[in-house]
Structures are given as C-alpha cells and as structure tokens.
Design goal:
The structure holds two protein chains of two kinds. Chain A is mainly beta. Chain A has strands at about 5, 10, 20-25, 35-40, 45-50, 60, 70-75, 80-85, 90-100, 105, 110-115. In chain A, strand 9 and strand 10 form a beta hairpin. Chain B is built from no helices and nine strands. In chain B, the strands form two sheets. In chain B, strands 1, 3, 4, 7, 8 and 9 form a six-stranded mixed β-sheet that branches. Chain B has a three-stranded antiparallel β-sheet with strand order 2-6-5, with no helix packed on it. Chain B starts with 8 loop residues before the first strand and ends with a strand. Classes of the chains: A mainly beta, B mainly beta. The interface of A and B includes residues 45 and 63 of A.
C-alpha cells in the first residue's frame, strides 16, 4: 500500500532553516507529483508547493516564493521541503501528499515544526 | 492567491443531509474540473473524499457526493453519521499551475 513517511518534529529559532523529508513507498515515485501542505495550530490547510517527481519541475505558492524549496531524490524515493528565514508564523504541522488527477490522494503523517526563541 | 470561501460551520442530525459550498473564481474553481474535498478529524492528516468535482476514491461511502456550478463547488453528505463530524476542506487547481485550499467548514452531527 502507498505510504509516505515523514521525518520527525523540529524545533527551530527565528531566522533558521528547516528541512523535512518525505519517503515514498508502495508506488513508483516518478509516476506522481508530490505536494507540501502546512497547517498552523487551529488554522486551515495551506498549499505550499509541488514537484513533478519525474522531471523535477516545481511550483510554489506566491506567499512562500523565495523562502521555500522542494527537491526530490528519485534514487531514494524521497522528497524534501526546505523553508528558510523561519518566523513564529511558520509554526505548523507540515504534510507531504501524493498528487494526481488534480488532487492529493495520499498523505504523510505530518511533521510538527515549532519556531520559538 | 486567496483562499476559497467556505462557511465556517454546518450541522445536521443523524440521518439528515448537509451541504457545504466552496466559492472561488474563474481562475480556480471555475477554470477546471479539479476540485477536491478532504475530511480531517482532530489530530489526523486530511483524507481525500472527492476528486475531480464528483469522483469518489475507493473506500469512500457513496453518502459523499460532489458537484460544481460556475465558480462554486459543493459537497453533500447524506445520511449523516456521528463519524462524519470533522473539518472539511475544498481545494482547486488554478490557472497558475498552483493549488488553493478553502477556509474550512466544521461539520457537527447534532
């Protein structure tokens, strides 16, 4: 079955950067896109960006453009999301999700990132 | 990209139906048939319930149905069960090759 396994929780100081990994199993990694979505405490889902796992083409939300970078390692079936210049408003649970047919069908378990001085 | 607009809350008694709206623009909901709906229980990851406006993934009960008219999509949950109590989010693909989520709706089963 499809599984997306994310790396563990992170605690960061303002101004730092964070990298979260998402390792896929149960399907061919390069056949589907990979999305990143975050959810601040008590808030709505926010789409961050996606990567075409086959071509490496990426698209980011306008809000995060310049601070977010999504990359993929096809040999490890793993996608990475880097977020820089962290601020308190970036405290959230970050999810990766498998894309296809204009949707996000399978989701990782989520990774909590806490930003605090 | 502004969030799609959903009502903050909706409710119904067991067995009844509830319909949630999701209003966007001609650059997202109105542009493509790539509207999805997700269910999220507290502390859990979202779960896909509807994709491409009205299609159900395997395993999703046919009590869940979706539709779209112009720039507004809708999710209907029929025959409400206690387990349907959750937050629901719509999402849409946009003309900028990005995605946008809705503001979210909390469904309460009375």
């Amino acid at each position: 079955q499809v599984q997306l396994l994310q790396s563990g929780a992170e605690v960061k100081k303002p101004g730092a950067s964070v990298r979260i990994s998402c390792t896929a199993s149960g399907y061919s990694f390069t056949t589907y896109a990979l999305h990143w979505v975050r959810q601040a405490p008590g808030q709505r889902l926010e789409w961050m960006g996606w990567i075409n796992a086959a071509s490496g083409n990426r698209q980011y939300s306008q809000k995060l453009q310049g601070r977010v970078s999504i990359t993929g390692d096809t040999s490890a079936s793993t996608a990475y999301m880097d977020l820089s210049s962290l601020r308190s408003e970036d405290t959230a649970v970050y999810y990766c999700a498998r894309g296809g047919s204009g949707t996000m069908g399978d989701w990782g378990q989520g990774t909590l990132v806490s930003v605090s001085s | 990209q502004s969030a799609l607009t959903q009502p903050p809350s909706a409710s119904g008694s067991p067995g009844q139906s509830v319909t949630i709206s999701c209003t966007g623009t001609s650059s997202d909901v109105g542009a493509y048939n790539y509207v999805s709906w997700y269910q999220q229980h507290p502390g859990e990851a979202p779960k896909l319930m509807i994709y491409e406006v009205s299609k159900r993934p395997s395993g999703v009960p046919d009590r869940f149905s979706g539709s779209k008219s112009g720039n507004t999509a809708s999710l209907t949950v029929s025959g409400l069960l206690a387990e349907d109590e959750a937050d629901y989010y719509c999402s849409s693909y946009t003309v900028s090759s990005t995605y946008v989520f809705g503001t979210g709706t909390k469904v309460t089963v009375l």
